[in-house]
């Protein structure tokens, strides 16, 4: 069985073109369209088996990419920023808003994210566990979700207190693994060692590349140069193999690079530059 990931959105919070911006890249994207348009980051694994994140652009993604959210059973949340989790839209799955649904949506995220989840339902004045059930993830405590074994790892992001997570996602039947590193700076050495001790070897690594060609994108994100540092660290811990695929995503207009410029820069290092709607098989 070939596994795959589809990038429904590949942009940071402001998107490209940014919602309020007149920089050169944003003006170019408005004119050029196509792969220059980047909506908020969201991915779907194996044709709807697992959805990662639920940003404000989720409804747009559903229409653009013909994703049937009614069939979803598992939603994995990285963190609480609204470009990754817009809980008010998720609350519209409750009875009275959505009709004739026959599946329960299981939502997985940190205890900190649960506060934002609860707030949306409190605003509605009720909860509805016949439609949605929240499962609290804890760092380093693996959990089985459908066909997948998930290893939550603290992200270098947000409050830097395990409020944000990155994920190792292993397909239990196919024994293939994905390392999903959005939004995050370079993971700590101890976290890479944890994954190595679990015997994980990744077939695909999805890399935050908010800073694009910048030398450093700060502690909470990565640039291409920081991606390369992470890849070398992963090789040291035997977390990747010769055929591992690397994909860069989560781009900001502040990175300043068009799709073609980013592609030219990344492919020299064997890293694929993602675009909205792209499907990668592994």
UniProtKB/TrEMBL annotation:
Xref: Pfam families: Lactamase_B_2
Domain Metallo-beta-lactamase, by residue range, is 66-236
What InterPro entries does the annotation carry?
Metallo-B-lactamas (IPR001279), RibonucZ/Hydroxyglut_hydro (IPR036866)
Q: Which PANTHER family match?
A: HYDROLASE C777.06C-RELATED, HYDROLASE C777.06C-RELATED-RELATED
> What is the protein's name according to its record?
Metallo-beta-lactamase domain-containing protein
Which organism does this record belong to? Enterococcus aquimarinus
